[in-house]
Amino acid sequence: MNKAEKDTKEKKKSRKSIIYFIGCLVFSLGMTWLLREPNFTDSQVYALFLLFFAISLWITEAIPPFAVGLFILAYLTYTFGNPHLNSNPEPIDKYVNTFSSRVIWLLLGGFFLGAAMSKTRLDMKLLRFVLHHSGTNPRNILIVLMFTTMVASMLMSGTATTAMIVVAIMPLLNTLGKSGISKAMLLGVAMASSLGGMGTIIGSPANAMTVGILENEGVRVSFLSWMIYGLPVAIVLTALCCWLLLKIFVKTNDPLSLAFLDNDKDNEEESPFQQRIVIGVLLVTILLWLTSSWHDITVAAVSAIPLVVLTLTRVLTSADMKALPWDTLFLVAGGLSLGAALQSTEILHHYVHQFKDIDINPYVFILIFALVSNIFAGLMSNAASTMILVPLGMTLLAGLEKEVALSIALAASTAIFLPISTTANAIVYSTELLDQKDFRLVGLLIGVLGPVLAVLWVLLVGGKLF
């Protein structure tokens, strides 16, 4: 593609984004005008507009998701605290202080650990180790790839995990071509990275955002508590997904050649000393996260360990800092600010109150929210889906805030039925070894069974099922 064609393509994208942005603005103003009531305060009107505007921007992607988060922070600061625009201005500290939330620091600690593992190539060393011990049976290789991806995605972003593993196995995929085995491997890696993200708070931005929203309501979810809810569901769904892929795509047990692993040598720049530092920091950090209820050191405070040690020892430098996914932090912080605004203005309580008299079992409501979360997350980011549905579900189901929030967040990670559903899906689809239809059967089955299993497990662990 030459420069002129690139310029034309960029102009079309810009024009499309501007049209979508204006459309979102008009839609949000119209919905606010239709739904506002005479007794609404200025803050409630502003919050109502922001709710529709943020949702429509997230759905249309007129601007990047992180930019929506920044817009939320700026908008709340300008409208809620401005005496010229608000007849009852209020302190805006709680809306801009979301950057100091323990959730942000927990995510940041996870980003540092993931970046350090990638830089020192510990992730590649782990992958080669497990593949060397998996044998040459394609079924065993798929199982090992999927569960390695699942575990890695609990500490690293699903996007980084998928990219790392796809690059590592690309020589094997090139020899296999567009075969059933190559399709199973690519789909397995992408789906396991999404499902594995259910296992920890730092596994997905949606998880972290949910914990932050619950914290605003006075409900604390520890690192270990989340794992009790999310990890068993992640393991079961990954195993189910693996079984389905084996049944559908892997029709032979002919051994595969793993000679490409011997050709992938470590970089000369690797430092065994730095690798040992990263391993030590990783083990200490995770151990302290898991035992925070025993020693009373908060997870946010524990996150300082990788931040300080990895920079002090020069494992991570200023150049590495620039490459961290700061956009995710902006998205989460903005989402938490929107949640705080909806809570303080009680705008959702006002509209949800009319549904209180609907005679439906509350657990059925939770399942409906989980299924809707799966659908939304398949069309937009799971963090945006969670931000929309969690406050609404918590408002509607008072007394079951924790159960509905966790169900929605876990269900969002099961949206894997389209190539665009997740970045991991897009990465494997870009190899041109997959067709769009390859995602459908397994993706739809997991998309239906995943939310159901998540809801049942959350209710069972929470003692609500019986």
UniProtKB/TrEMBL annotation:
Q: Which residues form the signal peptide?
A: none
Name of the featured protein:
SLC13/DASS family transporter
Cited PANTHER family = LOW-AFFINITY PHOSPHATE TRANSPORTER PHO91, SOLUTE CARRIER FAMILY 13 MEMBER
Q: What domain of life is recorded for the organism?
A: Bacteria
Could you list this entry's UniProt keywords, alphabetically sorted: Membrane, Transmembrane, Transmembrane helix
Q: How does it sit in the membrane?
A: Multi-pass membrane protein
Question: Which organism does this record belong to?
Answer: Adhaeribacter terrigena
Any coiled-coil ranges, and where?
A: none
Q: Which residues cross the membrane?
A: 18-35, 47-78, 99-120, 140-173, 185-206, 226-246, 297-316, 323-343, 363-392, 404-429, 441-462
**One Pfam family, short name:** Na_sulph_symp
Entry's localization field? Membrane
